[in-house]
Amino acid sequence: MQTTNRQVHSNYDQSTKTPRIATVKRTTGETDVQVTINLDGRGTCTAATGIPFLDHMLHQIASHGLIDIDVQATGDWEIDDHHANEDVGITLGQALNQALGDRKGIVRFGNFLAPLDEALVQVVLDFSGRPHLSYGLQIPTQRVGTYDTQLVREFFVALVNHSQMTLHIRQLDGINSHHIIEATFKAFARATRLAVEIDSRRAGVIPSSKGVL
Predict the structure, then answer these.
(1) DSSP secondary structure string, 160-204?
(2) Cβ pair 36, 69 in contact under 8 A
(3) DSSP secondary structure code for residue 209 in this structure
(4) Number of C-beta neighbours around residue 18 at 10 A
(5) Who contacts 84 (Cβ-Cβ below 8 Å, separation ≥6)?
(6) What is the arithmetic mean of pLDDT over 13-42?
(7) Does position 109 have pLDDT exceeding 80, yes or no?
(8) pTM of the predicted model, to two decimals?
(9) CA dihedral in degrees (194, 200, 206, 207; nearest 10)?
(10) Cα 137 to the chain's mean position, in Å?
(11) Radius of gyration of the chain (CA)
């Protein structure tokens, strides 16, 4: 299977006060996905993935992360949602990585605990340059509407690998599948918002004792 990646915009240097924006288009024999993000946005979201529940979760990332997101995707939905779900995660991860650039000045770490009714989920992340996912969700049903809940993990695997972040997801409580998943995306959004903020005490400096991420 041939994959084509094309960067339309690279990140902008935060020292210029220009928003950190990236657009990535990814085309394979199974899907065609284009993602644009603005890390310094206001939380607007346009999502047309062909997977309604995933669109709903992308809106959570945008709204609670204050990241402008535009996702347009077509895929082989007649088979199932797996390829489109995964490829949206890949492309969003690539766009996030490009928008961050060399990651100078960012806080780097984020930690948030989000409740949604009976569900409580903690997300801790590090834009470390080292992809790693620890996934601790126990989702009780196989589907939320038509969405296969196994695809939540697949989305985050793809996102982590292509954004080069370390991500830990821990479920502290919850019995409703929709609540558990939505609390996860909200916690991820807020942790990301914290991590990509510019640290005024370290602006222009890579946040690592090694001097590189």
Answers:
(1) HHHHT-EEEEEEEE---HHHHHHHHHHHHHHHHHHHHSB-TTSTT
(2) yes
(3) T
(4) 11
(5) 30, 31, 33, 49, 50, 51, 54, 73, 74, 75, 76, 77
(6) 88
(7) yes
(8) 0.90
(9) -50
(10) 17
(11) 16
DSSP string for residues in 59-119: HHHHHHHT-EEEEEEEE-TTT-SHHHHHHHHHHHHHHHHHHHTT-TTB--EEEEEEEETTE
Six-digit token string for 146: 């038509």
- The upper half-sphere exposure of residue 160, i.e. CA atoms within 13 Å in the direction of its Cβ, equals 21
Amino acid symbol at 60: Q
* Residue 27: both structure tokens together: 């085309």
Longest Cα–Cα distance of the chain, Å, equals 51
Higher pLDDT, 212 or 78: 78
Quick check: 93 and 129 in contact, CB under 8 A? no
